[in-house]
Amino acid sequence: MNPMLLGSFLGALLGAGALLVVLRLPFLRKPTVDERVSPYLRDLGAPDVFVDVVDSRSPFYAILRLFGPSLRSAARRLERILGGAGTIRRRMQRAGLERTVEEFRIEQLLWGTLAFAAGLVISIVAFASGRGNPVGMLAFCAIAGILGVLARDTYLTAQVRRRERRLLAELPTVADLLALSVAAGEGPAAALDRVSRSCQGELADELKRVLAETRAGETLVRALDALADRTGLPALSRFADGLAVALERGTPLADVLRAQAGDIREAGRRELIESGARREVAMMVPVIFLILPVTIAFAFYPGAVGFRMIAG
After folding, report:
1. Which UniProt keywords are given for this protein, alphabetically ordered (predicted)?
2. Segment 170-228, tens digit of pLDDT
3. Which CATH class is domain 165-268?
4. Euclidean distance between CA atoms 53 and 189, whole angstroms
5. Where are the domains positioned within the chain?
6. CA 179 – CA 171 distance, rounded (Å)
7. How far apart are CA 183 and CA 178, in angstroms?
8. How many Cα atoms occupy the beta-carbon half-sphere of 144 within 13 Å?
9. Which residue has the higher pLDDT, 137 or 131?
């Protein structure tokens, strides 16, 4: 390990830290309009999720209060760089997350910071053992931070897919229960209320939201259309559209619900068959590239050894 390289690396870290401290001094930092006005509008602002969930006696509360403005400012810069606020908002709705785009960007920053810190620790350990160079290590830390930011976006996609699978799994049962309630003589709103109270899960929560919108003055048809737009699932969109059309035109609702449940189950069977076919093809990869070469090696190796002994 070269002492000169180690000293230059540690000196660069110390200089970067001192520069950040100096730049954040109050007399060198010009406050923005939001920072000057926010103390007088504090009661009107939205609650800070990352502060309100922490007990005020916890040491993390002071840390979040201290770095909260910096995180929000960095989140706005990240939003200007990445863009796509409408797409993020749409995906969070489909994942069932009641958060703003700014809070999601703050989560991305935290994931990127943790990944950068992990890369920095690995780089310091590697540098202390005499391997690597400072430039490559800094590039590795930067790449780790970027991958951390992108990992949060990938995890949001995984959250959307998990929730969509749960909604599709619950939809046939909910449709059958609604058909039974309507066939027993209950109205559409009463049937939705009974099913939402009897069931548990993502779809039951969505039905409760539909009922809350109707109690707030929205028509049931528009609330169902909002449910279809919010989830983005074709099967659930057809279900909501079928309910809306039946309510508008006076079609027997029980028959419509039974047909919807049957169509959803048939679509689930087709998806299961297609998934099995894809997995069957994927199972051939380890067979061809792992098991078959080993089998060929075991079959031909004794013969090759025998030919070598005969030739020798």
Report:
1. Cell membrane, Membrane, Transmembrane, Transmembrane helix
2. 888 888 888 888 888 877 788 888 888 888 888 888 888 888 888 888 888 788 888 87
3. mainly alpha
4. 35
5. 46-163, 165-268
6. 12
7. 8
8. 17
9. 137
Helix (H), strand (E), coil (C) string for 129-174: CCCCCHHHHHHHHHHHHHHHHHHHHHHHHHHHHHHHHHHHHHHHHH
The DSSP element (H or E) to which 14 belongs, if any, is: helix 3-23
Both tokens of 65, joined, read 């209060």
Q: d(Cα 132, Cα 179) in Å, to the nearest integer?
A: 67
The pLDDT score that the predictor gives to residue 256 is 77
- Residues with Cβ within 8 Å of 99's Cβ and at least 6 positions away in sequence, in order, are 49, 92
pTM: 0.69
Burial class, 281, CB count within 10 angstroms (exposed 0-12 / middle 13-18 / buried 19+) = exposed
Rg of the chain's alpha carbons, rounded to an integer? 29
Residues 6+ apart with CB under 8 A from 179: 253, 254, 257, 258, 261
Residue 71: closest CA among 44, 46, 39, 49: 49
Tell me, what amino acid is at 219?
A: T
